Amino acid sequence: MNKREFLKASGAGMVALALAPGMWTACSARPKAKNWIWMTPVAGLSAGEWKAMLEKVKKHGFDAVLPEVYTGHHAWFETSRLPMQEPLLEKLIEAGRDTGVEIHAWIHAMPNNIPEYFENHPDWYAVNRTGESAAISPAYVPYYRFMCSSHPEVQEFVRQLVADLASCDGLTGVHLDYIRLPDVILAEGLWSKYNIVQDREYPQYDYCYCDKCRAAFMEKSGVDPLTGLEDPVTHQEWRQFRYDTITHLVNDILAPEARKAGRTITAAVFPNWESVRQEWRNWNLDGYLPMLYHNFYNAGLPWIGEQLTREIGELKIKKPVYSGLFVPSLQPGELEEAFRVSMDAGASGISLFNFNAISEEHWKTLEGLLHR
Ligand SMILES: [Zn+2]
Predict the structure, then answer these.
(1) Does the global pTM surpass 0.85?
(2) What is the topology classification, in CATH, of domain 35-199+244-370?
(3) Which of 33, 294, 300, 318 has the fewest Cβ atoms nearer than 10 Å?
(4) For residues 322 and 288, is the Cβ–Cβ distance under 8 A?
């Protein structure tokens, strides 16, 4: 008896499914997972070498790869608008067609480190609560030159990027990363790396107080968020304004652009979404890949399952959630456990960061695990 016949015979239908998220572990008819790998570009590889990599991916139970084709510095696809490194995406689409692996174009949406932009359009960039522009003094690392999504010119820049990629024949989808503001509070496990303690929201990491954001909030609420709020950190309407600004870009501009060309649209998202002003539970995408990098949060593997349960429960529009796992901090046995924890919590599959970090022992574990 297969699962459908069992459910029909039991008369339980959806009730049984709803009550038993971990049921597949004891049942041969568990839903087929869809598994992904983020892939950072490597220069100078031939079409044949990329094809061999995708064959390996497919053989080990993965369905989709996410090549990083726009880094905020360079494009890895044919374009006359951005500094181009190499037309990698075109080679990968061809290799994907030959191997049956889906190709999703991974882009850094909001950081823009192209001199033409941060030199000529500094007003496009996010500004922190001390008045510093990310164009000139980015937080944490030099590449944190985030643009602000309140600006029509910025919305148009990102829309055009998605449109250019979506027009590539054979591409399955566009994958948004860095679709947010800079972290007002970094994941706790990263504090020592930057030699900081972020026990509250400090002004130098709190964005965005650019003229556009201030004017738009002023028009909405009658208050300047920089000078008129007693405590901007706890002011709910001001927080919500910033969440909604990114949500508008995603739902009303980028998602329609990808779908118009017949592509799916997904995003890499944060479990601690409030810290990056990324309220992705309200987004309208085709799938979500939360980066559940447990070591960044000083957490163990059960934390991955707890986050997934909460996130899946909070989604306004129910779409698949794929568990993003950080391979460098997972021994092969732990990767197996992380996969099980994820699937038991209702994930639709896993996404590994990243291809280059997967050792031969990892591959061996994955082949047995994902084909089972
Ligand atoms: Zn702004």
Answers:
(1) yes
(2) TIM Barrel (3.20.20)
(3) 318
(4) yes
